[in-house]
Amino acid sequence: MDIVLATTVIASLFLVIGAAEPLAARLKLPYSVILAVLGVMIGAGAIFFLRTELTDALNPVAEAILGLPIRSNVFLYVFLPTLLFQATLGMNLRRMLDDWVPILVLAVVAVVVATFSVGYALSWASALPLVACLLIGAIVSTTDPSAVVTIFRSISAPRRLARIIEGESLLNDAAAIALFGLFMGFVMLGMPDPDLYEALVRFPVLIAGGAAVGWLAARLAIWVMALFSRHELAQISISVALPYLAYIGAEQSIGASGVIAVVAAGLTLNLTGPGRLPPQAWTNLREIWDVLAHWAGALIFVLAALLIPRLLEEIRVEDFVLVGVVILAAVAARAVILFGLLPLLTALKLSPAVERPYRVAILWGGLRGAVTLALALAVTESFRVPDGIQRVVGILATGFTLFTLMVQGTTLRWVIGRLGLDRLSPIDEALSRQVVAVALQTVREDVARTTENYELSRDIVRSEAKRFGERLDQAVSLAEDSGDILDRDRVTLGLIALAGHERDTIISRVQERTISARMAEQVLFDADRLIEGARSQGRNGYNRAARRSVAYGRGFRIAVVLNGRLRLSGPLARMTADRFELLLSQRLILRDLGAFIDGRIRRIHGRRVAELLHELLSRRIEMVETALEGLRLQYPGYAEELERRFIRRTALRLEEREYIAIREDGLIGAEVYTTLMQNLHARRTAAEERPHLDIALQWTELVRQFPLFAELDDAVLKRLGRALETRYVNAGEVIIRKDSAARSVFFIASGAVELEIAGQTWRLGRGEMFGQMAILMKKARRAEVRAIAPSTLLVLDEVRFRRLLERSEALQNAVRASADKRGVDSDNLFEDTNVESPADDRTSV
């Protein structure tokens, strides 16, 4: 093929891609449908001009179009890794963890169900071997939900719904291609029926091997990218190489799934990249990948559509019946998942509820696209697949894809309209009218000031003011007619707006580098939880998400166990440092939200709602301050280092702003500006480094601060620090239950607890202990102890406590004081303990 002509054809395809997007918007059709239609038209036109004698002038162009190197390997090795990798980079993985059940159900279970449903239906309706039917089922089971996601975003559908569909799109390609590779191997071996046992054994190897290769490749790439911290283009170049090397490495080296490898590599980079790369470099990297994925997705659709006329050339009448069987089986399998399994999981509280209209939209929006055509093309190209099977696979996959694009795709927006998903709820409608009224009042004030400053003609100003006043009066009248919004709904809407503003503030602080990139993902994750909690459950959901943001998670508890039992302090030190930085970032953001409540929410929702939101915000600030104070008390030196780091980073941000302003004013040239920014970057890199947290050293300092242990020497304190175990508890958590066996004594490092005995309650705080009475009296515990704030407890077992009690007079006095406070005879308490005086310093703790 002439290189000039081929280049011209490819450049023309980019023109087609550029024209498809505005055309799709004008026709209100999914972008992928327009691309497919244009591709089919180009492919059919090329075949037409080659096979007719109408004119020979366009034959070279037609030959160039049909001669493009469109092979399945081009799709699978060039375009697919790009699409999958970009999808993983653009996802909020922490939010997806909340919806992992429906995502896995739609992405994996639905693919398996669709594969076997289509396979057995075709086996019943045709003379094809079962393994070929299952191969067709795997090919058509992968969906391209980009169309329905785009429409959901345009109609402001719940974010959770769009996120579930995006998660499905990421994982169902991997599951379907893994199944395709499995059954393709059986077909090429000429096996009429697959060995299901062998399939079950090979499938986990494909998945696990691909995940391992992807993770290793990503970790290596991140390590290299971190070395090139000052070279942004080098980092982006390495990220471009990563998915292709992971894909080829998995496929060619160990025979695992390259798709899984790419997904694992993208997930690893998504989770660890923000903390290892500069914020601006990470932002630019994602923008580059957005562009690459847009081109790859469009090209794969157009090029695959070019093949459709060629694949359908040998279609027969009976093939239409088989296409109908595939359509019915695939739709039925998806309906079973959406209307059978998903509601069951919701009833079992394993999945969030997805309303019926949205499930119908997801069912009808299960379009098939370029991946299905690419897999079908791989079958038609393989000389090891019998000709009869090649023809049927190509026709059925292409016919089913055309049905989903031309029938489902073109009617999807109409279906969504009939379901009522494109209309605002009554509350949102009423709110929108109020927002318009408030906004127009503000605009009137600003316009009035502007006209005064520019001294415009009085007649023009008067006539325009009259027109604007009429619109304002109409907006105010409509807003007054919407006064039936309940206060509860106003509070919910106010909380959603407050959480949304919190998210916007976080993004701006990250861009200013006041909040580190390491913490950005977690703080945004908490803000998203606040938004969705307020949307789904109002004030209760918002408060639950707020408490969860400062609570000790499961990972933290696992790190405590690893440190206490295996002496692996690394995970605990890292997570404690993360918690410090997270709380500092939350405090920084929360203190800026009060002005938003007074400036915006009060004007729209009124004084009562604003006062309530101020109260809820004050409670959040108090929770964060309490949790932060607990960490300060536990790790005083480390808190000071983090605050110094925050001040240094803030000063560098302000310094950078000054340099930019001076450069824009023309006071310094490009050479001076570049030198100043290079020096600033070096200091900023040093300031970004987080101070190291030494858990063992901090514990020694913590134990030393307890008045009960003040008289112990350094050697005993070190042994005591190693003997004490740390336990973190959330507010409301029961620490000791009534009538439980007494085995440990608890010392409060931070926080507060409440003891309840026979209807009486006592509250204990930092530096105090509990649990010692039951041990000394050798009785079951009579008290129930509950944390009333996030607390850090130091736990000492009974044997070590008795040894410590023998040697510490301060501890003996504290035990006596506690006993007297509760009306227990302290002399009788020590009769069985043999405590007379402190032992010598050689007594082991």
Automatic annotation (TrEMBL):
<keyword id="KW-1133">Transmembrane helix</keyword>
<feature type="transmembrane region" description="Helical">
    <location>
        <begin position="392"/>
        <end position="416"/>
    </location>
</feature>
<feature type="transmembrane region" description="Helical">
    <location>
        <begin position="29"/>
        <end position="50"/>
    </location>
</feature>
<feature type="region of interest" description="Disordered">
    <location>
        <begin position="825"/>
        <end position="845"/>
    </location>
</feature>
<keyword id="KW-0406">Ion transport</keyword>
<protein>
    <submittedName>
        <fullName>Sodium/proton antiporter, CPA1 family</fullName>
    </submittedName>
</protein>
<keyword id="KW-0813">Transport</keyword>
<dbReference type="InterPro" id="IPR018490">
    <property type="entry name" value="cNMP-bd_dom_sf"/>
</dbReference>
<feature type="transmembrane region" description="Helical">
    <location>
        <begin position="361"/>
        <end position="380"/>
    </location>
</feature>
<keyword id="KW-0739">Sodium transport</keyword>
<keyword id="KW-0812">Transmembrane</keyword>
<feature type="transmembrane region" description="Helical">
    <location>
        <begin position="288"/>
        <end position="308"/>
    </location>
</feature>
<dbReference type="GO" id="GO:0098719">
    <property type="term" value="P:sodium ion import across plasma membrane"/>
</dbReference>
<keyword id="KW-0915">Sodium</keyword>
<feature type="transmembrane region" description="Helical">
    <location>
        <begin position="128"/>
        <end position="149"/>
    </location>
</feature>
<dbReference type="GO" id="GO:0015385">
    <property type="term" value="F:sodium:proton antiporter activity"/>
</dbReference>
<dbReference type="GO" id="GO:0005886">
    <property type="term" value="C:plasma membrane"/>
</dbReference>
<keyword id="KW-1003">Cell membrane</keyword>
<dbReference type="InterPro" id="IPR018422">
    <property type="entry name" value="Cation/H_exchanger_CPA1"/>
</dbReference>
<keyword id="KW-0472">Membrane</keyword>
<dbReference type="GO" id="GO:0051453">
    <property type="term" value="P:regulation of intracellular pH"/>
</dbReference>
<dbReference type="GO" id="GO:0015386">
    <property type="term" value="F:potassium:proton antiporter activity"/>
</dbReference>
<feature type="transmembrane region" description="Helical">
    <location>
        <begin position="320"/>
        <end position="341"/>
    </location>
</feature>
<feature type="transmembrane region" description="Helical">
    <location>
        <begin position="240"/>
        <end position="268"/>
    </location>
</feature>
<dbReference type="InterPro" id="IPR006153">
    <property type="entry name" value="Cation/H_exchanger_TM"/>
</dbReference>
<feature type="transmembrane region" description="Helical">
    <location>
        <begin position="203"/>
        <end position="228"/>
    </location>
</feature>
<dbReference type="InterPro" id="IPR000595">
    <property type="entry name" value="cNMP-bd_dom"/>
</dbReference>
<feature type="transmembrane region" description="Helical">
    <location>
        <begin position="100"/>
        <end position="122"/>
    </location>
</feature>
<feature type="domain" description="Cyclic nucleotide-binding">
    <location>
        <begin position="708"/>
        <end position="822"/>
    </location>
</feature>
<dbReference type="Pfam" id="PF00027">
    <property type="entry name" value="cNMP_binding"/>
</dbReference>
<dbReference type="Pfam" id="PF00999">
    <property type="entry name" value="Na_H_Exchanger"/>
</dbReference>
<dbReference type="InterPro" id="IPR014710">
    <property type="entry name" value="RmlC-like_jellyroll"/>
</dbReference>
<feature type="transmembrane region" description="Helical">
    <location>
        <begin position="170"/>
        <end position="191"/>
    </location>
</feature>
